[in-house]
Amino acid sequence: MAGPSEPRIVYEGRYQRMVVRDGWEYSERTHAGGLAAIIVAVTPEDRVLFVEQFRVPLQARTIEMPAGLVGDVHAGESIEASAIRELEEETGWTADHAEVLLVGPTSSGASSERIAFVRATGLRRVGAGGGDASEDITVHEIPRTRAAAWLVEKMRQGYELDAKLWAGLWMIEHELDGTPRER
């Protein structure tokens, strides 16, 4: 039985490359480790932080939890440091602590990208947020008890919702083993 073939790169850009290997076409992230972080963050006022922005691949506005590429700004930056940096940049909130909850693939049939769910705690406002100069991010602070209903409303209004939102909401309320999280 033959082993896997060598990958053939058919396109390479700043952050992604397209690869063909063993009949599969897929994308790879080209930055440090191909890892992104999604930040699960609840303010001291018990509000979940969401971001809204236009996403070119979907040609639509999306609702997401704050997120960003790990190591795209500072080589060797930890997942936790990247998450806090992205949280502050996108939302204007910073965190005293960031805890990696789990790491896994985002779309294992189409991309090698992995995502780390990071719980940010000890939040405090330090700025306006809105992203960097290339981003136009609207920050939403939604009461935790109303977050799921708000997301459904946004979906009905035509927004694209990142499916990871639902996992993030679950992680607000639960430990990874399923037990309720003390708040």
TrEMBL record:
List each copy of the Nudix hydrolase domain by range. 32-173
**GO MF, one annotated term:** hydrolase activity
Repeat as UniProt keyword: no
Q: Is ATP-binding among this UniProt entry's keywords?
A: no
Entry protein name: DNA mismatch repair protein MutT
Recorded hits in Pfam families, A to Z, give:
NUDIX
Q: Which organism is it from?
A: Pseudoxanthomonas taiwanensis
Biological process per Gene Ontology, one example term: nucleoside phosphate metabolic process
- Which UniProt keywords are given for this protein, alphabetically ordered? Hydrolase
